[in-house]
User: Fold Adenosine 3'-phospho 5'-phosphosulfate transporter 1 from Aramus guarauna.
Amino acid sequence: RFCLPLVLASLPTMATGEEIPPALQDVWGDFWLFRFFVNAAGYASIVVPGYLLIQYFKRRNYLETGRGICFPVIKSCVFGSEVKSVHQEDGSLPPRAEPTESSTAQQVFKLLFCAAGLQVSYLTWGVLQERVMTRTYGATETNPGEKFKDSQFLVFMNRILAFTVAGLYCALTKQPRHGAPMYKYSFASLSNILSSWCQYEALKYISFPTQVLAKASKVIPVMMMGKLVSRKSYEYWEYLTAALISVGVSMFLLSSAPNRHVSTVTTFSGVVLLAGYIIFDSFTSNWQDALFTYKMSPVQMMFGVNVFSCLFTVGSLLEQGALLESLRFMARHSEFTAHAVLLSVCSACGQLFIFYTINQFGAAVFTIIMTLRQAFAILLSCLIYGHTVTVVGGLGVAVVFMALFLRVYARSRMKKRSKKLQPGETPVQKV
Assistant:
């Protein structure tokens, strides 16, 4: 079995001819930066040959000269149909369908159904995520148990189920004609995998409430990337709320006593992983925003991204020999199996609830529901896992959520005002 981590860990001792102690292998295997580069090497073994093939077909002008049974597949993957949406209202989501005539009671029931579905899916997902990454399995009076360490396997579990759900949804419902070259999904897929890996891995070094607040602050790098990459302009209130969010997060982080992880190295690792999550996630949203210029539905986007996510993760796991080891861990601990499956189910169902809620009630209502979900997630994590929050930290949390609700309110006001603009005027783009 080809095991890339073992090869990399053995490099320092090859010159001396000494045998690698098992303890040294464990130290290398537990170092998150080492695992990050090992995973990246696995993805590169798929990305580089794929890139060379794409360049080969483009240089050969395969779209004009290609023939045979493989032509439709290669055309879809490399060239696409190049059909773009001319009037894409939001750039990230298709226009919301107008609700059909229904009673107030039916609308209230739909809203409660969406809110309950989102809260249950993502609150359960958050609790299970912290349980899987921070607690042991199989502990007894004589055995301390063992922790599950491979975050990439959890990413693979989530993506394979999301791929299945999205594929079934696209097969059973009418979807727009697909025009984007399939390989373009790989960029969003790669950044999405890395952001999810950083998210899982960070829980080994920081508390879940800290991670939730860090997610709330990702609007800041999204704005920065939009300014640098897309040259977007933003309103003054967007800068104000971004500053309030950064102040609130800083208050929480500086006031929380690190009772679980005392060492400076551990704290620094958590901060770096959170930064990696935010950066990769910001790139994902901006790249998906560009892909939505093609005529596609959100579920088609979900399917395309998860196709490559499954390919990347399963390829990397097989190269490292980690897939079989994770399956053995599942066989040893049935409780972990239940948690991993339920984690994936909640993630896939949550994405479907997102699409349905935005389609029925719009992005503003969805943002309010998800903001409340973040507050409930912090409260639930503190109750279940005993995290402590100081008074200053609580004020920081309040500042963050006040800023988020202010963004929702200001955005709704700007959206109403933009509808009254003259045909020649162009509204300022927003995050």
Summary: The mean pLDDT is 78. The first helix runs from residue 4 to 14. Residues 28-79 form one domain. The chain has 17 helices and no strands.
